[in-house]
Amino acid sequence: MKVLVNDQIAEEAVEKLRAKYEVTAKFHEKDELLDVISNFDAIIVRGKTKVTREVIEKGENLKAIGRAGIGVDNIDVDYATERRIAVVNAPRSSTMSVAELTIGHMLSLARRLPFADKSMKAGLWEKKRLMGTELHGKTLGLVGCGRIGAEVASRAVAFGMNVLAYDPYLPKEVQDKIQCTFIELDELLKNSDFISIHSLLSDETRGMIGKEQFEMMKDSACVINCARGPIIDEAALVDALEKGKIGGAALDVFDKEPPEESPLLIAPNVVFTPHLGASTKEAQIKAGTTTAEQVDKVLSGERPDFIVNRQIYDS
């Protein structure tokens, strides 16, 4: 069988696949991908490649689509399910990396670290202007509290923070194991000093943090997004920052990536990273090898552990 690795993944994962399959590890642009996809039994991607309905239609031999990471918004899962093609991912691969980046962004905002660094490199000594705040005793609100949110919660508790969470999809028995208090979204927004987004992107969550939500927040509140850019209405965020409706923001993800010419880039009190959440050596090895294992299970006729469209096995 043939496997196409269309985005770069850890070499350990490619070698694992090569031990059993004919592997092509090369990026194909959209038109080229449409020309070659019919030759493969499986495709593995990260976030760059879009596995659209058109790609799936051309992939007449496809049995598995692997996403080396968590989010599958770049894959037409519904059509893959209709075609009974397994979509697998690596949901645990970047948990620690994203959680640690989230804490890093919180500290950067609380102690104004990026602004201090820039000031020092400009030859300034702005000790009084760069007064910060402690995380200890502050309230963190988690919008979404799956694996990553739970890890952020445990680290925030270690800093002495009070943690609130909103996640209507998390079963009660799972909520009871996490070190936080679950409340409704409006109450979380009104009472949090730091608000961190950890929801999946869906039609329901797209733009869920907009003008109305920013109006509810404290003027000193800081928003962190290491999940998916479109969950936040960027125009509303720019407006809130410019008007001082919130204290600051830290963003790892954007509506359009890279965010070329975005008004966000010149907004006040905002810190950026270029979608680095899963960009650690450890996370990339786990993402690649886990996805390779899951694709191998599908091609070997076994049920994978991390199946996104499980209904193709249950029906």
Give a written overview of the molecule.
This protein has 2 domains: 2-93 and 281-314, 3-Layer(aba) Sandwich (Rossmann fold); 95-272, NAD(P)-binding Rossmann-like Domain (Rossmann fold), CATH 3.40.50.720. 36% of the residues lie in helices and 15% in strands. It contains 13 helices and 12 strands. A 7-stranded parallel sheet has the order 8-7-6-9-10-11-12, with helices on both faces. The longest helix is centred in the C-terminal third of the chain and has 19 residues, at 281-299. It is globular and about 65 Å long. The two termini are 26 Å apart.
Question: How would you describe this structure in keywords?
Answer:
315 residues; alpha/beta; Rossmann fold; 5-stranded parallel beta sheet; 12 strands
Quick overview of this protein structure:
The protein is of the alpha/beta class. It contains 13 helices and 12 strands. It folds into 2 domains: 2-93 and 281-314, NAD(P)-binding Rossmann-like Domain (Rossmann fold, 3-Layer(aba) Sandwich); 95-272, NAD(P)-binding Rossmann-like Domain (Rossmann fold), CATH 3.40.50.
Average per-residue pLDDT, rounded, comes to 97
Low-confidence parts: none
Q: How would you spell out the order of helices and strands? A: EHEHEHEHEHHEHEHEHEHEHEEHH
Structural class: alpha/beta
The helical percent reads 25-40%
Number of helices: 13
Largest sheet: 7 strands, parallel
Number of strands: 12
Kindly report how far apart the N and C termini lie.
26 Å
Strand content: 5-15%
Which topology of the largest domain does CATH recognise? Rossmann fold
Shape: globular
Give me the side-by-side strand order of the main sheet: 8-7-6-9-10-11-12
Rg calculated over all Cα atoms? 21 Å
Q: Which CATH architecture of the largest domain? A: 3-Layer(aba) Sandwich
Highest-level CATH class of the largest domain: Alpha Beta
CATH superfamily of the largest domain: NAD(P)-binding Rossmann-like Domain
The structural domain count equals 2
